[in-house]
Amino acid sequence: MEPPRIRITVTVNGEPYQEDVAATRSLLDFLRNDLGLTGTKEGCGEGECGACSVILDGRLVDACLIFAAEADGRRVETVEGLADGEALHPLQGAFATAGAAQCGYCTPGMLMAGKALLDRNPSPTHEEVAHGIAGNLCRCTGYGTIIQAVMEAAKES
Amino acid sequence: MRPFHYRAPRSLDEALALLTPQAVPLAGGTDLFLKMERRQTQADTVVDLKRIPELGRIEAADGGVRIGALALMDSLGASSLIAGQYEALTRSARVVGSIQTRNRATLGGNLANASPAADTATPLMALGASAEAADATGTRQVPVDQLFLGPGRTALRDGELLTAVLVPALPARAGSAFQRCVRTAMDIALVNCAAFVRLDGDDPDTVAEARIALGAVGPTPLRTASAENCLTGARLDERVVEEAGECAASDAQPIDDVRAGADYRREMVRVLTRRAIWKAFRRARGEA
Q: What is this model's ipTM?
């Protein structure tokens, strides 16, 4: 059978996009390959590591387990939407200052997990931050500085 | 991935009409996406249920609660209609997967996927809940403890959709608890256990009714009748609870797999059952 395609309209970081995608296309591949937004990473590809975390209609999700078609009519936030021009988002600034990125592969997902947390809970405790990033693995095990950075960002914003 | 048609109906009737034997319903997709990627399903049509608002609701009904099949684990874990009353269910919904999983995975999906380790299955069995199944001809109720036929197999018929879960009113002097053991925070349960206890009206130490359900220790989540019988009518003390744990362990049918050995699982059934009974008992007495 001819691979069925579907026309979707998705708002990504405030920009509306209308695209034809294969029904089998994942949201992750749509963001990276169709829109060229390669900040979002693929780690495990099975919803274990959180490297592909994006915010979909206000909820933190793994983009690798979602069909692009499911995002039709929805709002997606990715790491590219954090900075305002040259001005870093407080989370990005705090990650840089704290040295919260080592190899950097988990960083976009960690930033989005941090954003999803602070959007709901602007002044989290250390434990709440640890829980907030519990679905995101850092294989460099830089959790200490990542948690510290999210706490610092909470203070600033 | 095998190509498929994607459909996103706006109403239940429309969805039921699309659910031919070649179609598969899509809820959160946290299980289905990978099954499709691994070509473990032959479906040529995916029917996304997330555009049907009525399926996502959690509402009070008949003194109990009616949970739409598309209710998110995160919503379930946060629901004030469920917390405090149905403690076992709240706890289970809060530990499924990661935040990302709980923001996507649904109650109906967790049940219909029919994993022997499904975390919400045992609390619902202990609470005496029923699944509502709909097809083009109408709806029927299936008690959750009769829903599972084997790994990945349910009592839902071709063309039937699990639309809601009905949890009956919590009786007076009753409580429930959920226990689970895992290798890592993100893994599925090695063993889980849910207990429901209702105490006698005249003697708050005596169990009038008990339901104990075990997960990941058989081809389906299962009730342990011998542990329930051992509790019913008994004054609860260490010896009785110990005995109920023994009964549960002997009713369990664990296997050896990559996560744990059968002997270890059986031992954990004994431990988790005891803990769940005590917790449910204390909640039934209003002490926790």
A: 0.96
